[in-house]
Amino acid sequence: MKKTKKLLCTLLMGAFSTALWFGSNRQIVKADENTSIMPNEITIDYADQKLIITERNARDAEIICEFGKRKTVTTGKGSDRYSRDVCNFYTSSTYDYVNGLTIDLSSLKREQDNYIRLYGNYSESPTTIKIPAINTAVKAEFEPSTGIVKMYDITDKRVPYQYASEKIEYRNSYRTWQEYQYFDEFDDYDDLSKYQQRGATLYFRLKAEPTALLYTTAPTLSYGDVEDSDGDDIPYYEAFSFPGKEVKVAIPPLPGAPKVKVNYDKQAFVLPKNTEYRIITGNSNTDLKWLPAKANASLQVNMSDITEKYGNVDQFTFEARVVQTEKKPVSKLYRKPISIPKTPTIKSIRPNPAVALEKQNIDQNCLQDEYGSDAFYIQYVYNAKKKRCTKVEVTNNFEEAYELYVANGGGVPSPTTSGVLTAKATTESMSSVKVTTFSISKLKDGSKLYIRQKANAKLGQFSSPWTLFGVVSHPEEEPDY
Fold this sequence. Notes:
By secondary structure, this protein is mostly beta strands. It is built from four helices and 34 strands.
């Protein structure tokens, strides 16, 4: 009697446990044993090398993914379900209702043909996919003169094939892949010259096809590639390849900038051979065309041309570079900011140059400082012993040096005019006044005296344009003392 009660209790507990097990696990329902994964349920992400199964009827089923090469598929390795190397369980915990089941393919070797066989829940009718090997006979070349990279298939080295319509992508050591745009028909390539400033190492490859459903990329089955152990053809879907072989390209830095000599007094640049130049002002430039320069010749910058093009400017930047050849790119830039002091303003000039100056001085003509004082003036010096004026003194109270030029005829002197007299600048001491003298014989009646601020190489400053200081008149009588 006790045994009967014990047996009845055991049966009741077993039934209750079974009901509880089925109740708590009723969402796990095995799919049909003949469930197969079809091409319209398979998506391949070629760039990230992933395979995605979106067959919802096979959810909560065991999906087996077998990888192999041509030989392993031919010999029938894995015909026993329990010997297959990779199993994925498509269960409620792993199923993504948006993306399905994702299988990583990144461990596959791209350099060989890869075969993927998908079994759905005990099915012995797999879907076989072939992902062809990438082409390893590729190279990429950088053209320094154009700043572009071209990729080639060098399977036949005698006649390499240039990839023109194929999509190419590149990256440097720290960035993600980005598409390299070029249109061979118009020879319009992405400019990679930005990497030439300091040089760089880039990687190029053929871009993988976009993510797509298998039946879109391989709508029909292929035959004749592999056979099973019985010699029968194994049908397969041939998909696209993974991203191509990465080819390293070294981009050398640009050659160094040309060595340019600057003559600040003459407002000139001396450029080496095969050089071109341009001038950039602070204004809005519409013409940045490079101009050829004569080899080892002094290049005169005509300030009037700059003024005509850009208006009155007080500074500009001079750029020069070695020209591009068929084999070499342009060089790095030589850049030199140049400032131009303003024309000296003469605050006091005799109203009528025909009237003789004071017998003892000509300081009616002067430059005044910001306070209105005569900071720069010229006067005759009387020699009592010889009883005549023998020299002229130039007094400069400015902190900048000035230059004088006596023109006995002709027009305004040019920046390259020689024979100028320099009136040196004062020191920082307020009591230090620089006095420069020159012979009176250099001044003739009617001579025009021009003045300009002297160039300053340390400040990158050209001399200012010449301006008329005054017309010379000698003293006509001996001074009375």
